[in-house]
């Protein structure tokens, strides 16, 4: 809901309000972002109070405005040169290096929906938009700020556009999608950081005076710093307290800054990374920023995640598959790597079909000269020595097994050892006269050029026409040797963003032309796991690190901003291929089932017991798939060294109990508490029974096997579950095993199904 009165603007959602007003000198000032305040509330002027202080060395706006000290104000979109010396939302150069701008309120309009033709645009359904135009005090330079309120989801989408009405070019060096000034600096900042194999690990620290920032210069949203950033009160936890999230709907270089000013104000800015960025705007031209999503929650981090998850599924992801039951995959990569041939693959597929797996994904190695990772990228025709009847023939044989067929592609890349390079060496991104840096023996194709985009479009359309039901779109290196040979580029600083525009055009065209294909995005694991990627691919490969213990942290961090349905998780071999950790097959499943389940190991080498365990896992997952893929995710209170995750749908709650290590003689029961349980209801709780393997128990095998093991189930009032919680059965700890004792190893999990029965 949007309202505007007497120079005040109200952008409200069901539980939140964003309030602005035009200040005495014409600047658009920020008043409030937080809990809901109706636009007719009495005493709005009391929120920020008057500017009734003069400071010795303050830089005032001008002689007539001796109270307008911009550095002490909360502003909506700040530019340099008029007294606000905090970080600027915009830096644009004109007349040989001038950067002073003074954007003042000019006009506004309110409309239903959202009119912002920038890829990948958030859907306008369910939105109403406030558009405010600011114009520089002297020059014909307009900045248009857009605020789209999604009432139901408690999310506001922001963006900015700059138009150059001057007769001379403007060089845009830095341009924020959103700037948010907050009246106090009592916040922590939470970021999601890492690198390959340990993406999006949660980090939390106090904001201190100065600027804290995260960014990506990798050419992708990156595994180093995800564009999701959260400000939260020091006392905020999963269930309580205030938190504000900002996230860019963008897969390229980004920067998020939080500044604590000398006056104790906090400024949050989310933008394309100014690093290497310079966009030349000729007379009459405009530049549109990517969109940014903001959300406020007064009910802790889980409340915030809920809003972000629902928003991503409802308004960002456009695939038909968003709410579908996503298939359980078997992926050939860690099962066979490059050692593939049709017979071997079909044997793996048959074994997978037999245990109930639904989708066979043929990963890297099936095309061109691709016998290893030194060659072949760019040549997207099947290697008939591996797939004798081509890709379509292989797809037919997979379909004949009753499975869906999926294929891996890495369309943005070129190998020097490829037919494509022999024909088009000029398509490889490199700076004339320099030897380009290399990663995994591969290079970027210059997607800033229309002819390259057309080639990739056509070659991918051929691949996707083979009858495949699923595509894994990979991208396995970071950018270097930044250079565009696009004739329209006005400046080399346009390279990164033009690349993203080329990529989004490709994805837009291909996903529209093949609406029934399920796309999964991937980038050396999770190097491009962001809202821009999700717009086209409703699921993403979370990380190449599939070790269950590492994945608990990676999935936890990812779930702060991205829905369960977007996390693709595979059960892989033990010892794990990334860190050699041994984890029981059932415990690998426990972590992987929170999201989109798959398998990525050589099933043809597993024992009958292991296959039986997988068969049971698959059937459990199918029974609870709606909840595990599309349920509401939250954290339950940790207990006695274990964390508890919950996925909750209308019908049931699925709970994961995960312990990092098993203690000895811990002497007490771990507790399961479900704070959201309805005190007036009664619930049944049932533990999923797991297979126990001889190697898990070693010398204790015979002793354990001889005990008449009991499952665990209970019927409990919601008043107990939501407050005292229940005691979970004891865990084996070195002496006798009772029928009720359960076996939980290191990095181990149990799953519970909780249903309301009355
Ligand atoms: C990186 C991905 O993250 C892996 O899953 C796999 O697809 C390889 N690329 C194949 O080259």
Task: Name the features.
alpha+beta, ten-stranded antiparallel sheet, globular, 15 helices, TIM Barrel, 758 residues, binds (2R,3S,4R,5S)-2-(hydroxymethyl)piperidine-3,4,5-triol, eight-stranded parallel beta barrel
How would you sum up this structure, described in words?
The protein has 758 residues and is of the alpha+beta class. Among the domains are: 329-628, TIM Barrel (Alpha-Beta Barrel); 633-756, no CATH class. It is 19% helix and 29% strand. The strands form 7 sheets. Strands 6, 7, 8, 9, 11, 12, 14, 15, 19 and 20 form a 10-stranded antiparallel beta sheet that branches. An 8-stranded parallel barrel has the order 21-22-23-26-27-28-29-30, surrounded by 4 helices. Strands 5, 10, 13, 16, 17 and 18 form a 6-stranded antiparallel beta sheet that branches. Helix 6 runs parallel beside helix 7 and helix 9 packs parallel to helix 10 (585-592). The structure holds (2R,3S,4R,5S)-2-(hydroxymethyl)piperidine-3,4,5-triol (DGJ). The site of (2R,3S,4R,5S)-2-(hydroxymethyl)piperidine-3,4,5-triol has 11 residues, from loops.
């Amino acid at each position: 809901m949007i309202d505007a009165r007497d120079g005040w603007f109200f952008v409200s959602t069901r539980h939140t309000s964003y309030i602005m007003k035009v200040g005495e000198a014409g600047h658009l000032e920020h008043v409030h972002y937080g809990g809901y305040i109706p636009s007719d509330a009495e005493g709005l002027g009391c929120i920020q109070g008057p500017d009734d202080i003069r400071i010795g060395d303050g830089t005032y706006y001008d002689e007539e405005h001796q109270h307008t000290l911009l550095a002490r104000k909360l502003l909506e979109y700040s530019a340099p040169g008029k007294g606000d010396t905090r970080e600027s939302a915009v830096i644009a150069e004109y007349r040989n290096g001038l950067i002073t701008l003074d954007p003042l309120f000019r006009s506004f309009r309110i409309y239903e929906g959202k009119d912002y033709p920038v890829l990948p645009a958030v859907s306008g359904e369910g939105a109403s938009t406030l558009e405010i135009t600011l114009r520089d005090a002297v020059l014909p330079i307009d900045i248009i700020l857009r605020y789209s309120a999604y009432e139901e989801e408690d999310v506001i989408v922001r963006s900015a556009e700059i138009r150059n009405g001057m007769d001379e070019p403007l060089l845009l060096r830095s341009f924020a999608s959103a700037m948010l000034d907050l009246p106090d600096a009592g916040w922590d900042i939470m970021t999601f950081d890492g690198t390959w194999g340990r993406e999006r690990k949660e980090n939390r620290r106090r904001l201190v005076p100065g600027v804290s920032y995260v960014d990506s210069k990798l050419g992708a949203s990156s595994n180093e710093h995800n564009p999701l950033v959260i400000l939260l009160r020091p006392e905020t936890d999963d269930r309580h307290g205030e938190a504000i999230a900002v996230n860019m709907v963008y897969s390229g270089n980004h920067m998020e800054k939080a500044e604590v000013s000398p006056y104790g104000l906090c400024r949050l800015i989310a933008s394309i990374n100014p690093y290497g960025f310079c966009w030349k705007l000729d007379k009459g031209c405009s530049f549109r920023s990517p969109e940014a999503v903001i959300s406020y929650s007064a009910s802790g981090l889980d409340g915030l995640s809920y809003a972000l998850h629902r928003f991503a599924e409802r308004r960002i992801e456009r695939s038909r598959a968003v709410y579908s039951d996503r298939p359980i995959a078997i992926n050939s990569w860690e099962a066979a790597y490059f050692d593939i041939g049709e017979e071997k693959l079909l044997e793996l597929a048959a074994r997978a079909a037999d245990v109930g797996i639904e989708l066979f994904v043929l990963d890297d190695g099936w095309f061109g000269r691709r016998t290893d990772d030194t060659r072949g990228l760019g040549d997207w025709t099947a290697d008939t020595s591996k797939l004798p009847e081509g890709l379509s023939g292989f797809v037919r044989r997979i379909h004949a097994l009753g499975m869906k067929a999926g294929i891996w592609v890495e369309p943005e890349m070129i190998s020097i050892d490829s037919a494509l390079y022999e024909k088009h060496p000029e398509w490889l991104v490199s700076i004339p006269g320099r030897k380009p840096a290399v990663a995994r023996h591969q290079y970027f194709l210059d997607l800033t050029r229309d002819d390259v985009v057309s080639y990739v479009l056509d070659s991918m359309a051929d691949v996707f026409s083979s009858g495949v039901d699923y595509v894994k779109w990979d991208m396995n290196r970071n950018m270097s040797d930044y250079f565009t040979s696009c004739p329209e580029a006005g400046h080399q600083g346009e390279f990164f963003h033009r690349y993203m525009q080329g990529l989004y055009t490709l994805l837009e065209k291909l996903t529209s032309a093949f609406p029934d294909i399920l796309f999964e995005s991937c980038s050396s694991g999770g190097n491009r796991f962001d809202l821009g990627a999700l717009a086209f691919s409703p699921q993403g490969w979370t990380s190449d690190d599939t070790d269950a213990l590492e994945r608990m942290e990676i999935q936890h961090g990812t779930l702060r901003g991205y829905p369960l349905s977007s996390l693709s998780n595979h059960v892989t071999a033990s010892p794990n291929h990334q860190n050699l950790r041994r984890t029981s097959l059932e415990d690998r499943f426990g972590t992987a089932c929170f999201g989109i389940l798959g398998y990525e190991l050589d099933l043809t080498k597993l024992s009958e017991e292991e296959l039986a365990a997988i068969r049971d896992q698959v059937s459990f997952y199918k029974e609870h798939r709606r909840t595990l893929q599309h349920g509401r995710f939250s954290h339950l209170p940790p207990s006695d060294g274990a964390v508890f995750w919950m996925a909750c749908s209308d019908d049931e709650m699925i709970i994961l109990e995960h312990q990092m290590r098993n203690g000895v003689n811990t002497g007490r029961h771990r507790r399961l508490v479900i704070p959201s349980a309805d005190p007036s209801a009664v619930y049944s709780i049932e533990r999923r029974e797991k297979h126990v393997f001889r190697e898990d128990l070693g010398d204790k095998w015979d002793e354990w096997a001889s005990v008449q093991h009991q499952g665990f189930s209970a019927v409990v009032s919601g008043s107990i579950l939501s407050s005292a919680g229940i005691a979970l059965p004891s865990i084996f700890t070195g002496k006798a095993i009772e029928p009720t004792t359960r076996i939980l190893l290191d990095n181990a999990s149990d799953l519970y199904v909780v249903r309301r029965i009355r």
